[in-house]
Amino acid sequence: MVAFKTEGIILKRKNYSESDRILTIFSKNRGKITVLAKGVRKITSRRAGNVELLNRVQIFLHQGKNFLILTEATSIDTYPKIKEDLTLSTYAYHIIELMDRLTAENQPNLDLYNDLVEVLNRLSDSPRQILIRAFEVRILSNLGFWSTENIADLNKDISDILKVLEKLGWEGISKLTISEKVALELERILRYYIEKVLEGGLRSRQFLAKNKNER
To answer: Span 101-116, mean pLDDT?
Structure first.
């Protein structure tokens, strides 16, 4: 039996049988993985609170016949400020939906994992519009869906900002400010490219549309 430990962020979950759940986790060492969490739907399960959507967890797994099996889970961060705020939750779910839709299974990507942790850590205390746009351009770039060709025909001010969002450290990004006009243009451009890659839209966009003030 192959067993191992890693950490990750829970992107998605669905019920599986009367007592189990299947979790989609973006892990630090293995990229996106699918995990069977046995018994977590039971009221008496001591692991249930640790495997909630969006939690950052340390997990112990072993390889089962059809799934990786969760044997232990400990919360590193449950992001309570995000979960207690409907607007912040909407942005966070947009981020994890992007991760789930754009990434393939079992493709380790430490840079992308670190970007995911950074944006969630900063979401409750930094300008949200900037953080969301920075994460969007970084995930597209990291996965090979973004290049200088994407911005060659754009207004220079917009293209310069996109370059900054792609390359600047998260501490610097958290201190940036942009006008409402620029914010809307960045959202439009990145939405176009994301939907082009996915060949469709994101469910979280419907909720984002109801939250115009992202800052």
So the answer is: 97
